[in-house]
Amino acid sequence: MNPFKKIFLFVLTVIFFVSFSTIRAQTYAKNGMVVSSDRNASESGVAILKKGGNAVDAAVATAFALAVTHPSAGNIGGGGFLVYMNANGEVTTIDFREKAPLAATNEMYLDKEGILVEDLNHMSIKAIGVPGTVAGLYLAHQKYGKLSWAEVVQPAIDLAANGFIFNWSLYDDAVAFQMDASATAFMKSYFHNEMGELLQPGMNWKQPQLAKTLTLIRDKGRDGFYKGEIATKIASFMKENGGIITKKDLDTYEAIERKPIRGTYKGFDIYSMPPPSSGGVALVEMLNLMELADFKELEFNSTDYVHFLTEAMRRAFADRAQYLGDPDFNIDMPLDHLTSKAFAQKRFQEIDMSRASVSDSTKFGQLYDGESTTHLSVMDKDGNAVSLTYTLEYSYGSQLGSPELGFIFNNEMGDFNPQPGVTKSDGQIGTAPNLVAPEKRMLSSMTPTIVGKNGKAYLVIGSPGGRTIINTVFQTVLNVLEFDMPIRKAIEVLKIHHHWLPDVLVYEKYLLSPDTRKSLENRGHTLWGYDNLGALMGITYDPKKMILTGASDSSQPDGGAVGY
Ligand code: GLY
């Protein structure tokens, strides 16, 4: 063969293999898998699996690592939920949602005239809830981990102390904070190196204060955060800046183990988070409705399909607004009724396939809430699985933190209903179950979910995205269970969102045809196009082939499905 042709073919082959390995659609493994929004963090989790740790050890290590490498949502200053299924198919959950401080009241965001003060519940020191992440990870590890606590915290300390490559996404955020006149001083200097210069992409980013904080947590466990030096510094920071969180708030914070919400879908078992997350209840409600649909008529992406999904979402979110809140304060929530097949039958009869229903703004509604949350999914070689979603609420939470401690506080108080009795068509809600009260947990939409088949984990899935979380997880579960899509496809195909009020059907631009949009409008829907919904992180397990398949949403440029 002509030598030029040979070289040309060789170069083509190299290009093909390089592209194939870097744009690989999904990751396969036999011994364990971690999927998260940041590859460094996923690798920390897999290193723990390789050391002999189980899925809980790896999830805890990944969550601490995300607090270092993915600080917009990875955290030790926020809270979240963990669903755990062991190799025998037993499922439990850990609730480490933030709590309202002891001094909180249901009028704390109102002025003297009883009017809501703009943004006080979202972007102020009073928006910070008592953090739950360290207590939650500690409880999960104490009960279900295998390696020592020090071993699972250490990878995050290494990332903070030795540094890691400052990527373009972090740089993009860093520049945005420099350009934003309203950004806090803490965030303006957050991405500076020791010389006080803004880090550039490709540089090594070290976080010595965060490394010190994590070292205290490694050495003293839960109490390293909620008592002693860190607690004293948090309480002083709050006092100096007009906050209300005290040492007593920290000392009394406890994570709670709760029974999962359980549902079924055509022979699969669905396990997800109970209140104070609304995720599990709404997910099961919607799957029950979908189980009644005739999928021969309801083709994926068709007008009928999108219409039916929308009507399922509208109803589940209306129930969310009416009934759900912290179970420790709302002891009579009708969870069994809402998640029953009989209730789905009743709801099914109400749906008119030719017309959109109308969300009644005189009844219930809810605020659009923060999108910056992050999810990680883990499975180990024995079949243990963890689905963990945690959050700071907004991207970089309250944007507040003590430079001495090196981490960012949440602004989760914004997830409470801010003004008793005031519900508006724009989405502000004032119903009782989710009003502020001392030590109450704010209602969440986080939906960490595990689907089981014959008593084994089959799908581990979750997403960030505020209220869109429930709907993007719902559609991804449906894509895997009903349409048999591989996990990557299930994550990437069209997602839509409706959350009762405002009465708007949100869809991913470019993924819904103009003709379908027109027919949906003709049925009475108002449509808004969004670039992207969700950032799903999922793993499926094929019990016959004994292969794990993982995929991280392409919306997360630094995400990583790492297996071994
Ligand atoms: N902060 C978002 C959620 O908890 O749903």
Please tell me what the overall shape is: globular
Bound molecules: glycine
Specify the structural class. alpha+beta
Strand order of the largest sheet: 1-18-17-13-12-9-8
Helical amount among residues, as a percent range?
25-40%
Biggest pleated sheet: 7 strands, antiparallel
Number of strands: 19
Number of helices: 18
Terminal Cα span: 40 Å
- Residue runs with pLDDT of under 50 for 5 or more positions: 7-24, 363-370
Radius of gyration: 23 Å
Strand content: 15-25%
Average pLDDT: 93
Describe this structure in words.
It is a single chain. The protein has a domain of 37 residues. 36% of the residues lie in helices and 16% in strands. The chain contains 18 helices and 19 strands. α2 packs antiparallel against α5. The chain starts with a helix and ends with a strand. Bound molecules: glycine. Glycine binds next to β11.
Secondary-structure topology with pairs:
Elements: H1 3-22, E1 27-29, E2 32-36, H2 39-50, H3 55-69, E3 79-85, E4 91-96, H4 133-144, H5 149-162, E5 164-165, H6 168-179, H7 185-190, E6 204-205, H8 208-220, H9 223-226, H10 228-240, H11 247-252, E7 256-258, E8 261-265, E9 268-272, H12 279-291, H13 303-323, H14 335-338, H15 341-350, E10 372-380, E11 385-393, E12 449-453, E13 456-461, H16 468-481, H17 487-492, E14 496-497, E15 505-508, H18 514-522, E16 527-530, E17 537-542, E18 547-552, E19 560-563
Parallel strand pairs: 15-16
Antiparallel strand pairs: 1-18, 2-10, 2-19, 3-4, 3-11, 4-7, 5-6, 8-9, 9-12, 10-11, 12-13, 13-17, 14-15, 17-18
This protein binds glycine.
Glycine is lined by residues 369-370, 373, 391, 393, 415, 444-446, 466.
